[in-house]
Structure formats: structure tokens, C-alpha cells
Design a protein that fits this description.
Layout lengths: L12 H6 L7 E4 L2 E4 L5 H18 L5 E5 L3 E3 L2 E3 L3 E5 L21 E5 L6 H14 L3 E6 L4 E5 L5 E5 L16 H6 L4
Parallel strand pairs: 7-8
Antiparallel strand pairs: 1-2, 3-6, 4-5, 6-7, 8-9, 9-10
Length: 187
């Protein structure tokens, strides 16, 4: 959903960053402000379980950390992937070793979970942009199709379904399949 109207002056990234945060989060892409849809049950469950699963492995050996809804501001955009996995060495710290509030670069691994009301092309375009800027891996999880698209460097895209091992960020020892992830939705 576009928050700004056509009659308004097109905001800059700096203007956008001064606005009050919205719930759900808004993103600044190509000079426009878009509000993400409100997560529903399937989205929330996958997001929570996936963060927990990644962090169980990656945080233990200080390889990376999976952040839910982390604002990533880079290359004149400010996006909020459903999950942003950041390599441990790239987590921004202040002079006291405490994590800072702003993340002013791309995530190493961006994960989006497609909601029914989201535009597939817009979400994929966001992940392709991340890939262009240095993101090593992205996933676009589609619960309706029980499929996951992976975006690799140079914008190579592969489709994963069923019991095929998914690619993960190098250094994270994790074996997951689409089947594992979509089975989380069954109670």
C-alpha cells in the first residue's frame, strides 16, 4: 500500500527516516513509501520458527544472527525484510560493544515470506536489489505454493520444493528443506 499520495512532493530517504515508524513497517523503495501488510498466522509462525532455528545454530558459534523485521537502509532505500540475517562481524556495535539501533547496509541473507495480499513481483524485486548490493543469499517463501525461491549473487534464481535441501548462508551449519518449513504450519 502506498502511503504518500501523488499530490505530495516525493520524499527523500532522509525525509522518510525522520517519519515515525508504522505498524506494520513502511519501506522506502524507488522514492516511494510502501507499508508492508500485517503479518497473519502462517507468516508469523514461519518467521518466528525460522529465526529461532537459524539463531540456534548461528548464534551459538557467533557466525550470524537472524533479526525479525530489521530496518536495513542502503543505496537510497530503506527496507524491512521479514528476516535479516547478518554475519556476526557485520553487526554494528558502538564503542562499548553494544549493538547500535541503525543498520545502514544490506543484510547478508534476506528472507521474505509472501503474504496473500503482497505483490510477488515487488517482493522479488526487493530481493534482487539486495543481491545487486551484496546480499549473499535471499529466500522468497511462498506458503500457498509451498515453494521457496532462492536468489544468489549475480541474480541467479532457483526454485526449491519438497524435500530438497535449501541453500543457507556459508558458515551456518543448518539443513532445512521446504517440506520442513511448511510442516511447521501443521498442528
Amino acid at each position: 500500500m502506498i502511503v504518500a499520495t501523488k499530490s505530495q512532493i516525493q520524499p527523500t530517504l532522509e525525509d522518510f527516516l525522520t517519519l515515525k515508524e508504522t505498524k506494520p513497517a513502511s519501506e522506502f523503495i524507488n522514492g516511494k513509501i510502501y507499508q508492508k501488510p500485517m503479518p497473519q498466522c502462517q507468516h508469523s509462525l514461519i518467521q518466528g520458527k525460522l529465526c529461532e532455528t537459524i539463531n540456534k545454530v548461528a548464534e551459538a558459534n557467533k557466525t550470524a544472527y537472524a533479526f525479525p523485521e530489521l530496518r536495513c537502509t542502503f543505496n537510497d532505500r530503506s527496507i524491512v525484510p521479514d528476516i535479516a540475517v547478518v554475519r556476526w562481524a557485520r553487526i554494528p556495535l558502538d564503542e562499548k560493544g553494544k549493538i547500535t539501533n541503525r543498520f545502514l547496509t544490506y543484510p547478508d541473507w534476506a528472507i521474505e515470506i509472501l503474504s496473500p495480499e503482497q505483490n510477488f513481483t515487488q517482493v522479488l524485486a526487493k530481493l534482487l536489489h539486495c543481491s545487486q548490493q551484496g546480499t549473499e543469499l535471499s529466500w522468497l517463501i511462498n506458503p500457498d505454493d509451498e515453494a521457496i525461491l532462492a536468489v544468489f549473487p549475480e541474480q541467479k534464481i532457483e526454485l526449491y520444493q519438497g524435500n530438497i535441501n535449501l541453500p543457507v548462508l556459508n558458515g551456518i551449519e543448518l539443513i532445512l528443506t521446504p517440506e520442513n518449513i511448511f510442516n511447521w504450519l501443521k498442528f
